[in-house]
Amino acid sequence: MQGTAPELFLVYDRSTPPATSTGLRGRCPRCGRGHLFQGFLTVRPRCEACGLDFAFADSGDGPAFFVMSLVGIVVVALAMMVEFSYQPPLWVHALLWLPATLGLSLLLVRPAKGLLIALQFGRKAEEGRLRS
Description:
This protein is mainly alpha-helical.
């Protein structure tokens, strides 16, 4: 065969920065310079650097689900290790694991939301529609 069929190859747009780094840092998924968030979890209306409209950004409950799952597994595993090794009183568990759960959840939810929005932009994901 002479040449290659272009439709067989995935074309990667090198003008957009990687979704992982921009999402985890809370940056614009198109330019990587502008901020994605206005407050702690509030998405800005548009990027201040390139003007991308963030109306498409709807991560839904995805970030909360992934963070709850990850934090739950980690905290329960650590709590079981502490219980089986030291058998501390119940108040020690409450003193250790309630702040750990809250802290880890707050630490991870913003990067998770940014990552899901950046992946949504990079994959051009949108709401499903029925054909008529």
